[in-house]
């Protein structure tokens, strides 16, 4: 087979490689260095071998945080993906109302994470928050600072409020790419609304849905700021997700060795999941017709 | 350059050195004898670079799993990893 590419072109990406090496690869290597050593400050390090990895891998604390993290991401996907699809189906296809809906939907996405956390932290308070006061007026004993279930409901609803728009906007973009001829053909065949969704809209949305699932899963898996501002990981450790636990360990306790080992395991889990999603996304449908 | 820069130890330096040599070796191999992507048992196309990535990532999890579930001796996990990497390069 004739060679159709020139390997010298790889030198064109050299500046990016150097930049990424400086900003990501070298810091990651530092974390690996920390993970096998112990320090008491003053830039003095002592060899610890794989002790921190053993400690972290057998730690109930990490297992609990990991389980909580998977539950959180699972709940987020289970709510946001169907809700985002449903919302996108309700947005008018064209006209002024379509633009209005799109702008309205985009607004939560523009609010910084810590501001969202602060909004919901105040919103849920029984003494000064609208949600908390309304719950109290309805006779519901709602208190996210003392009740774990209430804290979970609050951070899940907050994330749904913040990010469902992203799924809806992506799905809307997928829906807009469907030619009218598909709908006309379905109408001639007398297809029901459900069948139009199942056999026309959903298959046409699969690409954007995969992107939406990837983005929402990765983002929810690495979430830190919003739950930290609202609950601080509490009550107890009930909303201490992986990144909150990691920051507590690294900066709160200054346990650099265990925190570095924890970071590497966290990084490997994210790397594995990203690779799985990326592989599924790039190979989806390629095997059809073979 | 002093080894204590970035808290280096000879062990971590050797670890990254091995990964660096592997990457350089794979690059040279790809330039000398380019290989087209192929369809493996996972039913998607992979290049040698993909297979190296899967091998390294899988090896990391094999070592972590071994450390968390069994403990010593860790060199046994390394042997399992080499067998796993060979299988990935052969069949994936």
Topology:
The complex is a heterodimer of chains A (290) and B (92).
Chain A: H1 14-35, E1 37-39, E2 45-47, H2 51-57, H3 60-90, H4 96-106, H5 113-123, H6 130-137, H7 148-176, H8 180-188, H9 193-221, H10 225-230, H11 242-252, H12 256-283
Helix pairs in contact in A: 1-12, 2-12, 3-7, 3-9, 7-9, 9-12, 11-12
Chain B: H1 10-32, E1 38-39, E2 45-46, H2 48-69, H3 74-91
Antiparallel strand pairs in B: 1-2
Helix pairs in contact in B: 2-3
Brief rundown of the structure:
The complex is a heterodimer of chains A (290) and B (92). With 290 residues, chain A is mostly helical.
Fraction of residues of chain B in helices? 55-70%
Q: How many structural domains are formed by the residues of chain A? A: 1
The share of residues in extended strands of chain B comes to: under 5%
- Low-confidence residue ranges of chain A: none
Which H/E pattern describes the elements of chain B? HEEHH
Strands of chain B, total number = 2
Note the beta-strand portion of chain A. under 5%
Q: pLDDT average of chain B, as an integer?
A: 88
The count of DSSP E runs of length 2 or more, i.e. the number of strands of chain A, is 2
Describe the largest sheet of chain A. 2 strands, antiparallel
What spatial form of chain A do the alpha-carbon principal axes imply? Answer: flat
| End-to-end distance of chain B | 40 Å
What is the third-level CATH name, the topology of chain A? MetI-like fold
Number of domains of chain B: 2
The CATH H-level superfamily of chain A is MetI-like
């Amino acid at each position: 087979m004739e060679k159709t590419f020139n390997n010298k072109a790889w030198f064109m990406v050299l500046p990016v490689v150097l930049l990424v090496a400086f900003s990501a690869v070298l810091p990651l290597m530092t974390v690996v260095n920390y993970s096998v050593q112990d320090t008491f400050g003053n830039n003095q390090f002592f060899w610890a071998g794989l002790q921190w990895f053993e400690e972290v891998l057998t730690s109930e604390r990490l297992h609990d945080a990991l389980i909580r993290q998977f539950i959180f991401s699972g709940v987020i996907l289970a709510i946001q993906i169907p809700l985002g699809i449903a919302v996108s189906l309700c947005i008018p296809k064209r006209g002024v109302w379509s633009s209005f809906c799109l702008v309205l939907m985009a607004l939560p996405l523009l609010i910084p994470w810590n501001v969202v956390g602060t909004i919901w932290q105040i919103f849920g308070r029984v003494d000064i928050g609208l949600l908390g006061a309304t719950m109290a007026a309805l006779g519901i004993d709602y208190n996210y600072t003392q009740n774990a279930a209430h804290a979970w409901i609050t951070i899940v609803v907050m994330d749904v409020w913040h990010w469902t728009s992203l799924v809806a906007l992506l799905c809307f973009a997928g829906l807009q790419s469907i030619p009218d001829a598909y709908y006309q053909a379905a109408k001639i065949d007398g297809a029901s609304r459900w069948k139009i969704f199942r056999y026309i809209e959903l298959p046409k949305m699969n690409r954007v849905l995969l992107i939406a699932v990837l983005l929402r899963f990765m983002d929810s898996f690495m979430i830190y700021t919003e739950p930290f501002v609202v609950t601080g990981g509490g009550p107890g450790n009930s909303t201490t997700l992986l990144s909150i636990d990691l920051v507590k360990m690294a900066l709160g306790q200054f346990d650099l060795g265990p925190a570095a080992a924890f970071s590497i395991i966290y990084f490997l889990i994210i790397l594995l999941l990203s690779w799985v999603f990326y592989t599924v996304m790039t190979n989806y449908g390629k095997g059809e017709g073979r | 350059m002093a080894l204590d820069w970035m808290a280096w130890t000879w062990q971590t330096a050797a670890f990254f050195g091995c990964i660096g040599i592997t990457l350089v070796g794979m690059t040279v191999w790809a330039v000398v004898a380019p290989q087209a992507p192929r369809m493996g048992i996972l039913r998607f196309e992979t290049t040698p670079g993909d297979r190296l990535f899967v091998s390294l990532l899988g090896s990391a999890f094999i070592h972590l799993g071994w450390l968390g579930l069994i403990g010593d001796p860790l060199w046994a996990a390394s042997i399992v990893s080499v067998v796993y990497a060979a299988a990935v390069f052969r069949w994936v």
